[in-house]
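Dear colleagues,

For the upcoming journal club I promised to circulate an example of a predicted protein-ligand complex. I picked one with NAP because it came up in last month's discussion. The inputs are reproduced below in full, followed by the predicted structure.
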Amino acid sequence: MGTDLDFVIFGFGGDLSRRKLIPALYELYVSGIVNENAQITALGRKDYSSDDFAELIEEAIREGKGNPPLEFIKPFSALFTYHKMDISSKDDYQGLRELLDRSKASKVIYYYAISPSLYTEVSENLFSAGLSEEKEGQKVIAIIEKPFGHDWASSIALNNDLHKFFKESQLYRIDHYLGKETVQNILVTRFSNSIFEPLWNRNYIDYVEISAYESLSVGNRIGYYDNAGALRDMVQNHLLQVLAIIAMEPPVSASADCLRNEMVKVFQSLRPFSDGDVKRDVVRAQYASTSLGPGYLEEKGVRPLSKTETYVAIKCYIDSWRWSGVPFYIKTGKALKSSSSEVVIHFKDNPHKIFSENENLSSEPNQLIIRIQPDEGMVLRIGMKIPGPGFNIRQTELDFHYSDSKDLRISDSYVRLISDAIHGDPTLYQRSDAIELTWKYVDPILKAWKEDDSIPLYSYKRGSWGPENAELLLSGKENSWRIPCSRMDSQGFCSL
Ligand SMILES: NC(=O)c1ccc[n+]([C@@H]2O[C@H](COP(=O)([O-])OP(=O)(O)OC[C@H]3O[C@@H](n4cnc5c(N)ncnc54)[C@H](OP(=O)(O)O)[C@@H]3O)[C@@H](O)[C@H]2O)c1
């Protein structure tokens, strides 16, 4: 029987391949989505003995977070072929061509786990070797990692370059946030339940928070991060994708085209920033040292006097009938008090309060909290009567944790995304127009920060919730940030 899948990893020896790709492919092998008829070709510059190579695969699987059964490691490792080559050298592609010609798989997937500076060169080399073209009965795709460009112009240039060597339908630009079950569950919550959609607009929603807090500092990705910062690293891609899913109109169907068209419409409706808006609606900051560790500027590898932001908060508006006047606050940062990503939908308050004169025990606006990670799940905060005389009210939570359902297991987002690529489903991958629009949106912020020295770069304490100045963005006096909290104590209060 011939090979039905050729999965080619560019950058096999790198961090992404070890931490994400190999464990994800193993999980797909255990579930049968990758089977004995697959060939996984690992490309790299190093020499490995066959023992070292097998050990590397086994270690990656054991260190992976999915906790899968380990008895399939041997047959899974047998699917791998290591091929030493310099992926920048055109001549070296002859050997790869021979390998792939031999297997004649019906599906070829190239995974670019390499520096973005190599994306165009590798694509051109594949094209020149005749390896990017789809032949009769064969599908060929390239999965491309973020960052996809570093500003609007470079994202357009990269799309133009890649389109010389691949058709758009062959390009799968990965954003692992879209592979998260909890992000996809936002779609299900909105479009499979009839109770939310009527309320999902400016008439009932006061404001929306989308936050991704990380307790880790920049770690060993300083070289990349110091040239990127929080806006490029988190907002342009992950958090704007989440915003699009929260804000999109109901699609006609869940097909790739319908969903991606609706997401693009949200990006087209984002109100563009002018220079003055950046000063007013965007707060950037860097972490400073505390007893928990050094400040950003003292981290090894950071450029002296680097102005790279490790925290950013943005007030966004979507100019559409549905969202007119509703602020969306996006916040993300590193070296914060704890790690948590969530969306909070803040509903409007009651127009008229009839219960309780005691303002501490009266109704409060409802919140729907979608926990993306950790402790994936969802909470609806509602007012309940405190038993006893009168109508005193306490906020309580209808709280769902995926972890409480023993039969539901959440895999890493790479498992879902690679599985979709194998099945030829691009729904959760980003289209070229979406990428360019999200860069177009953040571009004026990058430009203003670069050109206007009067825009402050605030400081926040390592281990805090970020700079106090972020609260300057809050529009109404009633608006406030939610402190993330995954579990409530027995009294119903946040245990943080
Ligand atoms: N790591 C993450 O958590 C993460 C998260 C999101 C996105 N990404 C993206 O994923 C991509 C890979 O990241 P990474 O962290 O895995 O990078 P990495 O650890 O630096 O790995 C890159 C790999 O590419 C190989 N390589 C470079 N030039 C080569 C050449 N000419 N011929 C053959 N192999 C070559 C390197 O081989 P050598 O070992 O021989 O140098 C290395 O194994 C990047 O685009 C990154 O932005 C990574």
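Two points we might discuss: Residues 178-473 form a domain with the Dihydrodipicolinate Reductase; domain 2 fold (CATH 3.30.360.10). The pocket of NAP is lined by residues 11, 13-17, 44-46, 86-88, 113-116, 145-147 (CB under 6 Å).

See you all on Thursday,
B. R.
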